[in-house]
Amino acid sequence: MKTLVLILGLLCLSVGAISQSMPAIYLNEQGEEVVPDSATHYRIIDRKTDAGYTIREHTINGTLLLRGTFASIDPVWRSGLFTWYHPNGTKASQVHFEDDEPAGVYVAWYENGKVRERGQFEEGQRTGRWVTVHRNGQKRSEGRYLYGRPVGEWRYYYDNGQLSAIELLNRAKGPALAFFNLDGSPFVGKLQRRQMPEFPGGEQALLDFISRNTQYPRDTRRKGISGKVYVSYTVGEDGRVGQVRVVRGLAPEADNEARRVVERLPQFQPGREYNVPTAVTYTVPISFAPNFSLFGSSKPPRTPPTEARANFPGQQY
């Protein structure tokens, strides 16, 4: 009898724990609610407590992306501390929200826990001095914001501490920009604030590489499964491809094949910001579909990768 009571008690506890969360809400990359097949991640909302609604967001495969609190869920109204996470589980960034806007200190970290960026929000806008940092701890950039816009003098640095660029904003004659080489000498050439990574041979060569090296897995074909696998990857400061992960899958075999192909991408010419080598993250869809042509070798249309730029906290939801 005691055993039966204990089992019933445990069952009640389990049911109570399960009932604390609402059904998952599936979202796309823009944070819009979609059907599960079109989702890149999902949100779990716990039932209301005195602190509000505790929420978690996960990738489709269950990796934690975000923790925070909603004061209201219809409409969504953020309140309290929000923390974003890297795929390895470490903190990616953190800021408090007041009246659905970021307020106070904002800090971002690399996957190894070292600070990447630090600044201040006021009424949802960047304000005061902001600093970014290279992975080795050297300062990367520093400048000031006023009402969410960069103002005054901004300085940018290589990872050895050498100045790479100076930009003077809010001048009557317009912004002034100067670049410097690693040895400190003035840079001679076209000044571009941002240059994207370049695949050897260009974008068409990248699409050709993916198409040529992707195989339609036998099990996926046999089951009649077709569609796209969305893969995220980062072109590092040295141009090498890393941090490859499936953000929206199709089937285990197809997901593994798409990941394998992206991991094999050759080295890029790295991207640059203010003349500093810069890591850039992309998302590329890879199609898996049977060949419906009886006489040719037609393949599904190929879509170029798109840059997966992280939103600032004040731009989400």
From TrEMBL:
<keyword id="KW-0812">Transmembrane</keyword>
<keyword id="KW-0813">Transport</keyword>
<keyword id="KW-0653">Protein transport</keyword>
<protein>
    <submittedName>
        <fullName>TonB family protein</fullName>
    </submittedName>
</protein>
<dbReference type="InterPro" id="IPR037682">
    <property type="entry name" value="TonB_C"/>
</dbReference>
<feature type="region of interest" description="Disordered">
    <location>
        <begin position="297"/>
        <end position="317"/>
    </location>
</feature>
<keyword id="KW-0997">Cell inner membrane</keyword>
<feature type="domain" description="TonB C-terminal">
    <location>
        <begin position="201"/>
        <end position="297"/>
    </location>
</feature>
<dbReference type="InterPro" id="IPR051045">
    <property type="entry name" value="TonB-dependent_transducer"/>
</dbReference>
<keyword id="KW-0732">Signal</keyword>
<keyword id="KW-1003">Cell membrane</keyword>
<dbReference type="InterPro" id="IPR011652">
    <property type="entry name" value="MORN_2"/>
</dbReference>
<keyword id="KW-1133">Transmembrane helix</keyword>
<comment type="similarity">
    <text>Belongs to the TonB family.</text>
</comment>
<dbReference type="InterPro" id="IPR006260">
    <property type="entry name" value="TonB/TolA_C"/>
</dbReference>
<dbReference type="Pfam" id="PF07661">
    <property type="entry name" value="MORN_2"/>
</dbReference>
<keyword id="KW-0472">Membrane</keyword>
<feature type="signal peptide">
    <location>
        <begin position="1"/>
        <end position="17"/>
    </location>
</feature>
<dbReference type="Pfam" id="PF03544">
    <property type="entry name" value="TonB_C"/>
</dbReference>
